[in-house]
Amino acid sequence: MNSKPQINTGIFFPWNPETGFTPHHKKSPNFGELYQQQIYQKIEPIPFETDPLGGFHFLLSSYDFSHSDTSPTIFHFNREGKFTGKTQLTRPALAKDFWEIKSWKTDGESNIYLLEEFAASEGDIHQVRLIEMKNGIEKWATSGPDNSGHTEYLSFTGTGFDGISIEDKKGLFVFNNRESGKILVIDPENGKISELIELDQAGTSYFKASAHEWVYPTYFSEKRLRGIGRFNSESQEKSSKIGDENLFGLLLYPLGMAPPNQLITAYPLPFGLEGRINAININDFSVQFLNLGSFAFSADGKSVNMLTDSALVHFMVGEPPHYTTLSEPVGNSKSELAFVNENGNFVVHTGEEPGKPGIMKEYSSNGHLANSFPAKKEFLEKKGQTPGIKFWRVNSNGVLLIPLINENGIGFVELSF
Fold this sequence. Notes:
The chain is mainly beta. It has two helices and 34 strands.
């Protein structure tokens, strides 16, 4: 682990119409009152997962495919960014009204595990289904109905099954975040339930710290405090530790583990120029943190830039960050670094409100304000975007991957502690 947080430019995946790796768009922004110039096409967030071998896997679909006939597709890339294939997912035959992929994982060796929830018609009982696909072909499926809000783990029925993870020795873990600390263990060879792990405390998310050591944030209701629980899937040892008032907010948005002992969280919820990433030591609860701004890639996708209220920070692989002080502060916490233009100037979007599209401020590479102009549609559609934290992932090396999407493709800001 690094002695202090570091930001680097990660891999960039350009859009490719030949393979079908292209973005979906939706109207933005989502205000009730819109000025005509505010209405533009915004690229939808793209869920992704990484595998133990360093590969990337993107789930592309329309933003809400629950009522659509369109089947989503997972695009596969190796750790060097080379396209290796795609897997088209099949809508369950009974999912005529509702279909949602709750969670999915891949092992990097052509095996994909999907946790789905679906319903035949409005008002019908929902069903959950866990399936394994190998080379695009369904290998097995385990399913059961929603039993009116009551969960029966060993028959895989009920609501709240919403997370899966691959465990090195036991197979698959299926988590239910609405019940008190129960985890299903699934045999990956046939999809059968092999074990039920019952924890002392309920977790909201579960993360692997080492081969068999798992960590999860938990809430101690009697003391109204949060803490961290741990369990070993091999030895069955379990423990939990309560934190103080300062730790309460830091555990609200857990993102993943940076092995062996750092839990990565976000607080507060990143928006505009506000956001903080924390690395919490699970042994002594000491905290490292880094304040974030908004990001944009350079035009060639080889470097990344971050906007703060008074400075622009330029990051390039293998080089220390370069700070440029702005000639005048942005002065708006909801300002965004929209894009870096072909001249290498930084374009900031600020002042957007219902009925007001705001303005664009163009800063030169030395931080001087070079131009200011209305935020027209053609400029708004060039804006890059950083999806919300539910689309962020911590990879197996403990590096936080923050996706950044623009008209050229999707890339990643890498944050390590």
